[in-house]
Amino acid sequence: MKTIIHRGNSRGHSNYGWLDTHYTFSFANYYDAGRVHFGALRVFNDDFIDGGGGFDRHPHDNMEITTIVLEGTLEHKDSMGHIEQIRPNEVQVMSAGTGIFHSEYNADKKVPVKLFQIWVFPSVKNLTPRYDQKAFDPADRKDKWQRLVSPDEPGALLLNQKTWFSRISLSADKNTSYTLHDKSHGAYIFIIDGSAETEGTRLETRDGMGISEASEISIKALKDSDILLIEVSMQW
Questions:
Q1: Which domain holds residue 105?
Q2: H or E element: which one contains 41?
Q3: Given 19, 72, 147, 208, which residue has the most CB atoms within 10 angstroms?
Q4: Is residue 95 domain-shared with residue 118, that is, in the same domain?
Q5: For every one of its 236 residues, what pLDDT tens digit does the chain have, with 9 covering 90 and above?
Q6: Other Cβ atoms within 10 Å of 138 Cβ, number
Q7: Domain tally for the chain?
């Protein structure tokens, strides 16, 4: 088993006024040669968007993009004609493929938006762009894994990569395990809130840990914890 630890306070950070963001991996003006990606996982941005702020229309191509809203409401508009609002417990996926333009704005002038935007390299390039969005019941992840994203599972949002996003609300002192689909894959664990022990390592709020060369991962909540686990192909 190989592990890599990314403490929350070691991440890259930028504050643009309307946007306060932390970068787990190299992005924008933050670069660390040791933090470019974890397998196919390329970007994990922890964004705080002030009321009325947002990203103007901009392009993407050949990237699988997932947005998870934690608080507030994000408004999305794209060149495929989608005009959508994304709220807490909703997840958006966008396969940029051959190219797409979109904008993202805080839909409320007063209430900030907190979200994760996560990019994964695609398994096949230059596909037709695709968009999807879904609400997930938080009760369905109480002390059990809730699948958010998958390459092929009914009920999950689909991405063009061997990637599985799972979320759990794990009660204090509870144990859980996660079995990878293939031992050649890796798992990136991110503590949204709380405190947990993973394979002997204590992780606090906003800490991340990448694990590879393992078939199963054990996690114990040290207090009530909200945890995101991303299983990715380490070679693509």
A1: 11-123
A2: strand 41-49
A3: 208
A4: yes
A5: 999 999 999 999 999 999 999 999 999 999 999 999 999 999 999 999 999 898 888 888 999 999 999 999 998 888 888 888 999 999 999 999 999 998 998 989 889 999 999 999 999 999 999 999 999 999 999 999 999 999 999 999 999 999 999 999 999 999 999 999 999 999 999 999 999 999 999 999 999 999 999 999 999 999 999 999 999 999 87
A6: 13
A7: 2
